[in-house]
Amino acid sequence: MLRNAVAISHHLVASVVQKGDMVVDATCGNGYDTIFLAQLVGDEGSVLALDIQAVAIENTHTRLTELGLIHRVQLINASHAYLDEYLPNQISAAMFNLGYLPGGNHQITTSGPETTTAIEHCIKRLRPGGLITIVAYPGHPGGREEKKYVKDFLSQLDQKEYETWQLNFINQRNQPPCLFVVSKLDGGAL
What we know:
Elements: H1 5-14, E1 22-25, H2 32-41, E2 46-51, H3 54-66, E3 73-77, E4 91-97, H4 112-125, E5 126-136, H5 143-155, E6 162-168, E7 178-184
Parallel strand pairs: 1-2, 1-4, 2-3, 4-5
Antiparallel strand pairs: 5-7, 6-7
Helix pairs in contact: 4-5
């Protein structure tokens, strides 16, 4: 069931990613999205996964190794703002799960300027029919500003080339996560 923003993002990404594709986890955190992507692309595909925190890279590496998926993933300990240095020519999907590392230092968070830079890098490499999902968390310090930054950036994308969506839970308290979606048009809507 699609009960939260992350589950919806997984459902959408699974609808466009195929075996052999190249995909990105721009904020690998504890590795759950990275694992999901590695399972989607199969042995023929690959995942580029970044995180600014070394502990996140270590956690993700451990989980991928335990599941026998590490050979499908390139882990990079760097800010997603530097994605352009590592991206291949074309990607099928990218996932962003913003905020702070669960179980980690809550003072280290993603930020609007770095996140929109990374999204822009991914957009430039996104194949027709490809998808970017961004889960934003407005409830933590800086989260509301980052959400606005992302929304303002995505609102300016050319509607002839991209569809952009914002999905919100409207009956939940305490500033629930928000899902942004960017779909690169290929002549037909998603």
